[in-house]
Amino acid sequence: MGVTDPAGPVMDRDEVDRALARLGAEHEAIETSLLALQDHAGRRLLEGAELTGVTKERWTAAEASITLLWAYFDAYTGALRAAREIRSRRRWSSREDLVELTELLRGESVTVADSAAATANAPTLHGTARLSHSFSLATLVERMNELYASSLDMVVAADAVWSALPARIDLLAAELQRTRRLAHSVGVRPGEHPAGDDLERITHTLTTLREQVVSDPLAHWVPGQGSSAPGGGRPDTTVYDREARALEDVRREIDAVLTVRQDAEQRLVKLRDVLSRADRTLAEARTARGEVLAKIAATEVPVVSGPPTVLQEQLATAAEYRRHAQWHRLSPLLESLEQKAEDELLRARESLTAVTAPLAVRAELRGRLDAYKAKVSRHGLAEDPFLVERYDAARRMLWSAPCDLRVAEQAVLRYQHAAAELLGAPRVPEQGGHEDRRGEHGS
Prior knowledge:
Layout: H1 13-39, H2 41-48, H3 53-87, H4 95-106, E1 110-113, H5 114-117, E2 132-135, H6 137-185, H7 194-215, E3 221-223, E4 233-235, H8 238-295, E5 296-297, H9 309-323, H10 327-355, H11 357-378, H12 385-398, E6 403-404, H13 405-423, H14 434-442
Helix pairs in contact: 1-3, 1-4, 1-6, 2-6, 3-4, 3-6, 6-7, 6-8, 7-8, 8-9, 8-10, 9-10, 11-12, 11-13, 12-13
């Protein structure tokens, strides 16, 4: 692109002076920014790092952009120097000087050689390779601003990731090593316990993550949504956060194992006691069943099962785990056994209750019969022949073996009815549940 005539009229001396002042201020600002970029800690780290992936690609382009920036800046400096020299020739510039200054300050008068513009991977105007490019000073400033912003964005993003993640990964890795040693001391090892496998996986992931962060920091950068400022965004801590949570879960698992180690013997003793009580209750239920079958006739008595041998086997296994300090295996086994032992004791108690129910019914009938006899005696009717006959009939049935509960209950009811008639009380219904009879007893 060649030099063209400046757009618009020839600038006067005041316009030239104002333009030179503005361009001089822009020159100082650009130089300050370029020197700051040159001294940026992130840029120095990028220069010395062995980069990979997207960071390597972007840094190659950024290096070319920075080189091109300095080439543009040098051309800009030269053009500004030339304009200042022309303006300094005379206090009152001639028309020829003003025409030349107008062309220099407004026209595409700055030529940048292709040796700079064609630097590898550097952005070029219109994507074409040419021997040289010509710019106006205003266009050159815009171009430098674009290159500076893209280069600074890349440098700041890489530096932010390097400043945030490696140190945090190192701290987590140190905590991981302490956790691994503690896990090993309680038998939590890879291949033997899931938490041991988790520790191996976390170790491998953190090692890989640190290598990736160091060599390719931009792969762990999340650009800010809608932000155009250089470095707008944040480090991507997704993988780090996930592994930190996983390590916390492992620590809780190991704490549980440590708790098991501290109170394992006490829990085993309690387990043995619960299972022993369940066995004794079942034995009592079996004995009671024999007694019921011998003393009660015409009734269904449930069968009492024996104690489950599997619980005793698991208890022996738990004791073996404790002897060999296999706390990671003992922990879940104890939790399972404690629940099963409580369930077994409840089952044994329910069996005893079900088996002895007929004896409880007989005892209730005996108590009701004696209570009515005492009531009749208080009213002076104990020697009544009719009542004596019915009382003796009911008593023989309740105190004989085997006792037919249905027949005995009817005999007790007949005695109650007879007593009620003599006492002038309302008759007791012939049929009714035990709750009704108990109500009559208490009346």
